[in-house]
């Protein structure tokens, strides 16, 4: 059968690294510490709330913007945590997960050839979203600080490069904290520096805060919502899927000033229109429990500490994991020949031969890099982490 000729919008794009590594993990029966999803169940009370919603016939189309009850509780939660008020009727929209929210933000405000600044390494949906909108990518790279032995110790924000990239032509700056994949967390002084850069411009902010409730060591998440000047020009994105261990439900939300949310909803209504009804009612009911959010930091910090303390007994060099549920590690000092492989090849070898899947940090860049850093996900049962650690220790002790 002959094919009709057309020009691909994404000629360089293949299957995402997460899908590739998860498929490889399944093929080799490997423990999947690559893709960021828990292997444990959510709170049974949440499942019960969704089931009750279904049985109470909340199964038809909800309002395009999300059910009022949920938007009201989102507004109350933001005010409780960050001291910022968003009108639930005009400034909050429930989305089909964070990835849809990101794409909708970009499509709503970026016109062809308008500049969009991203900070690499960057979640893999950002740049394709910019391409779909016809925007002009301006990428700056985090600085991998290395020690005397040449090992990456941490990633720091590239303020000098950001100052050069953000100007009167910038339409949107896309930021992410806590940061995937590095686990870095923005501080108050970082938000203050960002304000100084965008103040003389008309640049908008897209702030991806899906790991907002996974910040550790008694730190507070510094949402852009806390900063009035940033709030006035920002879309803030969060995820119930990440927060409540139900990534497959794909339910998130966006908060933004009314003049920005109006534009967001124009695209949202023709993108997905609306979001799964019983899940919205179930989540809304579950938010009545006072511990819905508050227990999460300690829960994941315990997993981080267990995983990192065990991995520290090996030749992996661990980077700080201040937030998210990811642990990055430099593998270049492993005393095996494979330690000289590039990140993608090393992860393939690790999955097929050691039966532990990880993600190469190089996959979060628009152009090839190789820092010998890979990302593990510790949002797993302790038994899963223990088995993975036993296998990793065989090559790295």
Describe the structure.
It is built from 14 helices and 15 strands. The chain is an alpha/beta fold and 397 residues long. The chain has 2 domains: 17-42 and 295-396, Aspartate Aminotransferase, domain 1, CATH 3.90.1150; 45-286, Type I PLP-dependent aspartate aminotransferase-like (Major domain) (Aspartate Aminotransferase, domain 2), CATH 3.40.640. A 7-stranded mixed sheet has the order 2-10-9-8-7-3-4, sandwiched between helices. A 4-stranded antiparallel sheet has the order 11-12-15-14. Helix 4 (97-109) packs across helix 10. The longest helix has 16 residues, at 296-311. The mean pLDDT is 94.
Keywords:
397 residues; alpha/beta; Aspartate Aminotransferase, domain 1; Aspartate Aminotransferase, domain 2; 2 domains; 14 helices; globular
Q: At CATH's second level, what is the architecture of the largest domain?
A: 3-Layer(aba) Sandwich
Query: Any idea of the CATH topology of the largest domain?
Result: Aspartate Aminotransferase, domain 2
**Euclidean distance between termini CA atoms:** 55 Å
CATH class of the largest domain: Alpha Beta
User: Approximately how much beta-strand content do the residues carry?
Assistant: 15-25%
* Overall 3D form: globular
In DSSP terms, counting alpha (H) and pi (I) runs of 4 or more, how many helices?
14
- Secondary-structure-derived class: alpha/beta
**Quick one: biggest sheet?**
7 strands, mixed
Q: Work out the radius of gyration.
A: 21 Å
Strand order across the biggest sheet?
Answer: 2-10-9-8-7-3-4
- Provide the domain count: 2
Average pLDDT taken over every residue: 94
The CATH fourth-level homologous superfamily of the largest domain: Type I PLP-dependent aspartate aminotransferase-like (Major domain)
Please tally the β strands and state the result. Answer: 15
Uncertain stretches:
none
Helix proportion:
25-40%
């Amino acid at each position: 059968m002959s094919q009709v000729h057309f020009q691909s919008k994404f000629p360089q794009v293949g299957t995402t690294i997460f899908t590739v590594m998860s498929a490889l993990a399944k093929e080799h029966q490997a423990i999947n510490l690559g893709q960021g999803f828990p292997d444990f169940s959510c709170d049974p009370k949440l499942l019960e709330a969704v089931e009750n919603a279904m049985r109470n016939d909340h199964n038809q189309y909800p309002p395009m913007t999300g059910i009022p009850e949920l938007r009201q509780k989102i507004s109350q939660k933001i005010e409780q945590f960050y001291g910022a008020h968003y009108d639930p009727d005009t400034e909050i929209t429930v989305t089909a997960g964070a990835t849809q929210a990101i794409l909708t933000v970009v499509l709503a405000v970026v016109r062809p050839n308008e500049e969009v600044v991203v900070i690499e390494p960057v979640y893999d949906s950002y740049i394709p979203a910019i391409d779909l909108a016809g925007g002009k990518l301006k990428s700056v790279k985090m600085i991998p600080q290395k020690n005397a032995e040449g090992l990456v110790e941490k990633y720091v924000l590239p303020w000098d490069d950001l100052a050069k990239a953000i100007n009167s032509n910038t339409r949107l700056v896309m930021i992410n904290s806590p940061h995937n994949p590095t686990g870095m967390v923005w501080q108050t002084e970082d938000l203050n520096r960002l304000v100084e850069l965008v103040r003389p411009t008309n640049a908008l902010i897209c702030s991806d805060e899906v790991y907002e409730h996974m910040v550790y060591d008694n730190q507070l998440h510094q949402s852009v919502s806390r900063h009035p000047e940033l709030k006035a020009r920002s879309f803030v994105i969060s995820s119930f899927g990440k927060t409540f261990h139900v990534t497959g439900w794909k339910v998130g939300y966006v908060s933004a000033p009314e003049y920005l949310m109006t534009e967001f909803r124009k695209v949202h209504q023709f993108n997905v229109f609306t979001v799964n009804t019983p899940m919205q009612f179930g989540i809304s009911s579950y938010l009545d429990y006072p511990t819905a959010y508050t227990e999460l930091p300690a829960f994941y910090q315990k997993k981080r500490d267990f995983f990192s303390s065990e991995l520290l007994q090996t030749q992996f060099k661990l980077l700080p994991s201040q937030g998210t549920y990811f642990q990055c590690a430099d593998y270049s000092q492993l005393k095996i020949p494979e330690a000289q492989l590039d990140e993608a090849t090393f992860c393939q070898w690790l999955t097929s031969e050691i039966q532990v899947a990880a993600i190469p940090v190089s996959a979060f860049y628009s152009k090839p890099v190789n820092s010998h850093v890979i990302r593990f996900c510790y949002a797993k049962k302790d038994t899963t982490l223990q088995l993975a650690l036993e296998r990793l220790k065989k090559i790295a002790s």
